[in-house]
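task queued by scheduler; priority normal; single chain, no ligands, no partner chains; default sampling; output format set to structure tokens
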Amino acid sequence: MILFFLKHVKVVAVLCLIVAALMIACTQVESVDGHSSAQSSKWSILIPEVDFGVLAENGWHWDCGTIAEGSPIRCQLPLRNKTANSVTISGIVKSCGCSEASIDRHEIAPDYSAVLTIVIDTHGRSGTLSVSVSVLGGKKEDLILPIVISGVVQRASILVADPERVDFGTVIVGQERSANIEVIRKAQLDTEVPRFETDQWIGSGGTTAQVLRQIERMNVDESGITMVSTLTVTLPCALQVGMFTDRVMMSANAGGKPIEVAVSVVAIISDGLHLSANSAFFDLMSVGTSATRRVSCHSDSGLSIIRVESDTDWCTAKIVSDELEPATQWIDVSVSPQRKGLHETTLRIIADDRNRAFPVTVFAQ
């Protein structure tokens, strides 16, 4: 009886082992991200086998830091196929013509790798660099996430102005105004420091930038050589009243290559006269009546109003001075319309050799 029972137990055990083996065979293969192959069978993903970079939703990012201009960026990334199916590579898409990308095999069997080589040319580039490379699969279900390589390209020799914008504020016509700025010349230890080939530059509006001291100070460290020069930026004297803007391009020679830096110049040019009103408006006057408006005029440049000219007989102006305030004058603007409607004219305020237009408007009924 016991022997009969043991035989049946052995049979049951064998059957259990067979069922377990069948279940294991039917078990779904788990992918690298912990999901089953049934869940991820829509995508065949090549996983970069790299020790650097940050995994993101849209791919892998490698920040290569600061790179000297002209130094190529070269990286080789093994791409391993972690799926149960072969992946065919149909092409490579690059975001920039400055990069070259190639792969050493176009058919990647399961658990095998292909090496993606990326080379980026940094000649003629400066500032932030970002290049993405996407490897395309032969089928639409072959998804290979893009790889992004970024960094900052630093020129071997650079020219920097500090500040890059000079604001002179309000300047009286004929008044001389200047300001000092610094121009910083930087170069790597194995390159030539940028050299000024002239000591003066002139902007299109007549602003000049003159070298005052070639070497104000100098510093040498592991990052390279830094020379600081002092320049004087001077406004031209013959300027018209209003807003003045100019741009001075300064250049230097860096190993046979010209490099430039621009300085913007801004100023408000004034004739020195400050009126309490920029125009006079007389509304709803009756024909044949008269009205007067007084406008004060203050000069901070020693100007005095000589006369006020008018081209019409219905608008006149009279200059009134105050001995207690010699810097302030008043202009009495008087109008006497002789017909209905809108009347417009412009008075000319003459102060020494300068003119100021003063519009006058009357509406008569």
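post-processing summary
- The mean pLDDT is 77.
- The chain has three domains: 41-154, 157-270, 273-364.
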